[in-house]
């Protein structure tokens, strides 16, 4: 019997993983918007290792997996370490800088 793995997610909205052999089996992976920690770099979700291996085997070329926005670890400490290593890796979903072109400022500024 397989154990559990930690799936880290740097996407703001998270993702729902569907088992490739049985689409009725799904796992919701939390995203950054679910975090209660301001400035969090990832959110981790405990997932059955067999489920993860089946999903990952079928989705190795999924852009979020290839970029490291979704990653796996054996422990919470390893997940935190991987997240720190990938801190500068962009997902494309980062908040827009407040001084970016097109951002309207309050009239009081």
Give the SSE map.
Blueprint: E1 4-9, E2 15-18, E3 26-29, E4 43-48, H1 49-58, H2 63-67, E5 70-73, H3 76-85
Antiparallel strand pairs: 1-4, 1-5, 2-3
What does this structure look like?
- With 109 residues, this protein is α+β, with helices and mostly antiparallel strands.
- The chain has one domain.
- Helices cover 23% and strands 22% of the residues.
- It is built from three helices and five strands.
- It has helices spanning 49-58, 63-67, 76-85; strands at 4-9, 15-18, 26-29, 43-48, 70-73.
- Strands 4-1-5 form a three-stranded antiparallel β-sheet.
- The longest helix is centred in the middle third of the chain and has 10 residues, at 49-58.
- The chain is elongated and about 55 Å long.
- It starts with a strand and ends in a 24-residue tail after the last helix.
- The model has no long low-confidence stretch (mean pLDDT 84).
What's the short story on this structure?
The protein is an alpha+beta fold and 109 residues long.
Number of domains: 1
- Helices and strands, in order, run as EEEEHHEH
Largest sheet: 3 strands, antiparallel
Report strand %.
Answer: 15-25%
Radius of gyration: 16 Å
The tally of helices reads 3
What features would you highlight for this structure?
109 residues; 23% helix; 3 helices; alpha+beta; two-stranded antiparallel sheet; 3-stranded antiparallel β-sheet
């Amino acid at each position: 019997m397989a154990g559990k793995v930690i799936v880290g997610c740097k996407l703001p909205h998270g993702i729902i993983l569907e088992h490739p052999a049985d689409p009725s089996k799904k796992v919701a992976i939390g995203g950054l918007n679910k975090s209660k920690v301001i400035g969090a770099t990832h959110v981790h979700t405990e997932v059955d290792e067999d489920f993860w291996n089946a999903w990952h085997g079928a989705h190795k070329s999924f852009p979020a997996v290839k970029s490291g926005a979704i990653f796996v670890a054996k422990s919470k400490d390893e997940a935190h370490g991987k997240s720190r290593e990938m801190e500068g890796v962009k997902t494309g979903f980062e908040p827009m800088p407040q001084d970016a072109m097109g951002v309207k400022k309050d009239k009081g500024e």
